[in-house]
Model the fold of this input.
Amino acid sequence: MTRLSIVINQDRCIGCQTCANACKMENNVPMGMLWNRVITVGTDVIDGAVGTYPNLTREYLPMACQHCDNPPCQAVCPVGATYTDDVGRVLIDYDICIGCRICMAACPYNARVFNWEEPVRDPDFNYGHKDVPVRPRGVTEKCTLCKERTDEDKEPMCVTCCPTKARTFGDLDDPASAVSALIREKNAYQLLPERGTTPKTHYFK
Done:
């Protein structure tokens, strides 16, 4: 089997938002929406800091769909629009999605966005990979691990564009893969393990 995964080195993440913008451009994400975010831990703003000057610290947490092995979003979808494919990507069939947003409520990682209005793009045309579906108003959407790229045996665009090489992409089910080696050697962790979702995304510092 194959289970595609991203492992993220938080010590290398500099909060530059390149991953968020590369994802946005590759996947034709409309204005006002992001599939991929970089959170500044302990603050409610981008590039905030924790502590009192001059004793300040800053830690970044890249966040997107965790492509869980036990995805709660899939379990609650009343029409089967959310599904897991044969390489472990959790995806949405936009033709089936009815926009009920139950999946958004079920996701503990706040990893989905919703098209409340007709999508607006600047510049005023579709961009990114030619095979990325154009999502209409009234559906949920999220990271797909750049399905169109990874189907071509390429890395997700966030991995390719990260200037500090904080992201590693590969197959969790291959013990010789780079992601498997990092998880073993760096004691990588998953977010909210107590929720039982078993994310495929792993982090280490």
